[in-house]
Amino acid sequence: MEAVHTQGILFAETLQERAMSQEQLWLVVTHMGDPKAAFLLLFPFTYFVSRRAGVAVLWVAAVSEWLNLVFKWMLFGERPFWWIGESGLFVNKQPKVHQFSSTCETGPGSPSGHAMVTAAVWWVVVSSLGSFLYSRTHSVVLSVSPYLFYVSMLLAIGLSRIFILAHFPHQVVAGSITGFILGVVLNRRVPEGRPLLFFFGCSVAMVLGALLLHAALQQLGIDLSWSIALAKKWCSRPEWIRLDTAPFSSLTRDCGALLGLGLAQYWKPGGWSLPWAPRALSLAISAMGLYHVNRLPLPVQPQGLFYGLFFVKYVIVPQVVMVLVPGVVHLFTHRKKKD
Q1: Global pTM?
Q2: Tens digits of per-residue pLDDT, 120-138?
Q3: Which residue in 77, 226, 236, 254 has its CB near the most CB atoms, within 10 A?
Q4: pLDDT of 95-114, one tens digit each?
Q5: Three-class DSSP labels, 229-253
Q6: Is 79 labeled as ligand-binding?
Q7: For the chain, how many structural domains are there in total?
Q8: For residue 52, what are the domain limits?
């Protein structure tokens, strides 16, 4: 792997050298590929276009991110920004690379979570859109265009992760391929209309599965906090280390979102039936609501409190999108129409 990692560093060095003038663009792209964007941006947008697609996006995002956590714990992938220092190969000649505010993630690096979750959730969107376009136009060229966008987006997000030194190229490729497979498989098994007990069971199973794996690896003498220690050691600025990039943050996000999805379908089975104009209004209000939910400051100490509140935050997300906002919009638009 040493040769693979070295070539990855050289590729990142070349990429930064040639594309540093587009630094802000790469940072925007990497934020678009952040797994939380699937929960806070893509989910509400797709839900108000197609209820089934929205539920599928949330389902696929939660399961694929949880599996990414499991893979990372088992594969122990390095990250470029700390491997440069830990390898000892660049003592005499340091590579000309720079870190950024999004570089210093604390989990292991393989496979790339950004690439994996993005590939999984966007497959739901592009496959649905491609089928819709073909059914309406019977144009192969037009129906293929979403898939070309899909490949282009994965390439851009992968390059952005390499550019900021968060991942090696092989980790991005592995994440993209794994995410694509998960997207295809999970999109066929969307739990639309399943009882609350199903989602509660999934949420509990995710927690117990992750904790059992964590305990088993510790029993084998494997310290799963190794990546956090290396991130803190080699990150250029301490303030770039964020608790919401830690492995247990993604676990609580996934479990909270699935439980929230079950609660939303329990409170309002079938969802609210809205015309296109109220749907657009609901999307706008939901986006503003989730923006403020995401910005809620959480105490980082004690960590148990942080993870508990982080869990609650993502339980709230489906309630806002699927129940609260469309319910209020329906109430006012229906009353206005009745008057």
Answers
A1: 0.94
A2: 999 999 999 999 999 888 8
A3: 254
A4: 999 999 999 999 999 999 99
A5: HHHHHHCCCHHHCCHHHCHHHHHHH
A6: yes
A7: 1
A8: 2-338
